[in-house]
Amino acid sequence: MDTILNVSKLCSGYGELPVLHDIDLHVKRGEIVSVVGANGAGKTTLLLTITGHLRAQSGQVLFDGQDVSAEPAHAAAARGLIMVPEGGRLFPFMTVLENLELGAYHQQARAQMKHNLDEVMSFFPILAERRQQLAGRLSGGERQMCAVARAMMGMPKLMMLDEPSLGLAPIMVDRVFELVKQLVATKGLTVLLVEQNVRNALQMCQRGYILEHGQLLKTGSGEDLLRDPDVQRSYMGL
Ligand SMILES: Nc1ncnc2c1ncn2[C@@H]1O[C@H](COP(=O)(O)OP(=O)(O)O)[C@@H](O)[C@H]1O
Ligand SMILES: [Mg+2]
Fold first, then answer.
1. Structural domains of the chain ordered from first start
2. 49-65 burial string, b = 16+ CB within 10 Å, else e?
3. What is the pTM of this model?
4. Cα–Cα dist 98/118, whole Å
5. Ligand 2 centroid to 6 CA: how many Å?
6. Residue 14: CB within 6 Å of ligand 1?
7. What is the Å distance from ligand 1's center to 178 Cα?
8. Amino acid 1: pLDDT
């Protein structure tokens, strides 16, 4: 498996304020990788810096062999680096269909929009049923599915999910994570997931990283991290 994302010595923050310190992480094609950490650990900052929404203070982000550290976010998105923001950030007063269409914002995605819409609708039948409904009226789980589906409309190679389990009932968390796993298994997708929901995120990934106060403390297989006494004590109340 080759590496699709390689982050090295990445430092980032807001203005003078440092948040991320010397982050080294990589994701191989076809993998699901989780970065887990508490509220405020720097998970969202990490994703925003990788996409280029936030400019790195130093370090490098290689995506699909290209240095994207200096590129604007829309350029990285057109290369297939697509983020599903926390809460989904759908447009509540637009329909499900309109939200999905907005996901096809670069040229190639627009050219294949009809085909991709059919695929996405058959993968998420609930969205096909609700296509004319306002996105603001979806349930939490449906909203998250719609956000993932909108990201699929951008033809991602790497999908980065920011806390997709936030605010969902446990059964919906399982459902959304299962769908993401199916997308990886069947559509050639690769996933980088950031989560506070440590147990679910480590259960669903091949590899994970523990992020604390802007630093990566540990890495290993999901199984190993789930069994790690420090991880259990700090994040799983055991
Ligand atoms: N726009 C911002 N301006 C200044 N500080 C921020 C901003 N967004 C987040 N932070 C700070 O950066 C740190 C990491 O935040 P964040 O990346 O959102 O963490 P997480 O996603 O893990 O909860 C926190 O201390 C937070 O207060
Ligand atoms: Mg966050």
1. 3-235 (3.40.50.300)
2. bbbbbbebbebebbbbe
3. 0.95
4. 14
5. 21
6. yes
7. 29
8. 60
